[in-house]
Amino acid sequence: MKYLQAKRYLLLPGLFFGLLFSCTERTESGDSVGETMILPWQGGKKLAVSVTYDDGTVNQFKKAIPIMNDLGMKGTFYINTGEIPGSQYPARFIGRDILEIIKETGQTPTNADNLFERASAIRMVDTEGSVEIHNQAGALYEQGKVREACELIDEAYAKIKAIPNIQLRAPKVLDGERTTWEEIRDYAVQGHEFGVHTISHPRLAVMDEENLLYELVKCREDIERELGPEHTFSAECPFGTEDERVMEYALEEFEALRNRMPEEYLHEVNRWGDFDPAYDRKPYTQWQRGPLSKTTLAQKKEWIDEALTSVNSPWLVLVYHGIDGIGWEAQSSDSIQSYFEYIHDLDDKVWVGTFKEVTQYMRERMAANLTVDVDDNGIRVNLSHDLGDRYDFPLTLQTRVPGHWTSVTILQDGTEQTLPVDGKDGAFYVVYSGVPNRGEIMIVGQ
């Protein structure tokens, strides 16, 4: 190995638009040997894509997973646990006796002070349409129509009073075939992520605190018991809610929410928002799109093509529900296959990662502490963050190396990578993986 001028570079955590750089110093020959950057997405790709599914309908597993497995893609499945055989926690109402609540509605009209209790209870009343009343009240509330939501609840309870022998029962979420925990464990082993979608898919915005938390926390506990803590990282609160009170509770319980990702370096565009490829005021943009039954393959391809023109680092989050006639707004498996094949053919530009993986990568990169030392033995890179043990996803780094190196060996924590040296515009560099907080990364040239 030829002599390398000894030097040390330091990168502290910070927000940068584009790439993260570790140095600006140059050697006497003018080369910035050791200059290291953390690339925006894994593998140096331009676009990150997460394929997510809601509700856990059976064809998501029987039709979509085989397609994804054949293409080497991993998805994220947000599941309702209440109707999975073997789950410990069923849907239930926690609170006063329902007869007491019903009686009180005849004396005190529903208002902002008692709406949450009454809306939580009504979806458990064993009468036709009670779940729909709960859902409609929630939709009205989220539109700011509190008075209309209260009136709807009062009308429903007025009818319930006339029904003898009122009973409570868990609402039915899914029709048809159920997927078992044993089957879900097999899918998890294949690399797919599972996350919280509540026990029974309620409108959380009109639930009181105890019932709201029961739906979120007990769903998570069933998933953790059956699949392990690695599947408790992310959640999706039903109906795509962005209700501020719900978000406050949920963000206290989970590292990541598909509903909201309030990071100062992330621009969010929800499923109903317009994507602006020219937006450059934050390093990352998360753009959600939900394919519906009438969404054409050409339209879905346009989402990929448009995202690839973004000036910052885009993250396209796809939100699927039904497939082949089962579930809400079902897409055909043929359409899914064609679309996923289109994404797969863009592998040089597109990284497909689970919601958890992409979140971890982005947060680790933005929280990175990076130091680089160059001497006769090679280039030593130290990569760390203070995010905690739940963040150990490999980052992709690019380091400038001497022009006479043709290949390098990367050593970290007992692992070894042998990689070629690439050159562009008179600069020579190597692109490699490094895991934060796993000890020194040693780059040795050949």
Q: What are the SSEs and their pairings?
A:
Layout: E1 7-11, E2 20-21, E3 36-38, E4 47-55, H1 58-70, E5 75-79, H2 98-105, H3 115-122, H4 130-142, H5 146-160, H6 181-189, E6 193-196, H7 209-227, E7 234-235, H8 244-253, E8 256-257, E9 266-269, E10 284-289, H9 297-307, E11 313-320, H10 333-344, E12 350-352, H11 355-366, E13 369-375, E14 378-384, E15 395-400, E16 407-412, E17 415-420, E18 422-424, E19 427-434, E20 441-445
Parallel strand pairs: 4-5, 4-11, 4-12, 5-6, 7-8, 9-10, 10-11
Antiparallel strand pairs: 1-13, 2-3, 3-15, 13-14, 14-20, 15-19, 16-17, 16-20, 18-19
Helix pairs in contact: 1-10, 3-5, 4-5, 7-8, 9-10
Structure commentary:
- There is one protein chain.
- The protein is 29% helix and 23% strand.
- The relative contact order is 0.17.
- Helix 1 runs parallel beside helix 10 (333-344).
- The protein folds into 3 domains: 7-44 and 364-445; 47-89 and 172-347, TIM Barrel; 98-160, no CATH class.
- It is built from 11 helices and 20 strands.
- Strands 4, 5, 6, 9, 10, 11 and 12 form a 7-stranded parallel β-sheet that branches. A 6-stranded antiparallel β-sheet has the order 1-13-14-20-16-17, with no helix packed on it.
- With 446 residues, it is of the alpha/beta class.
- The model is unreliable at 1-6 and 12-30 (pLDDT under 50).
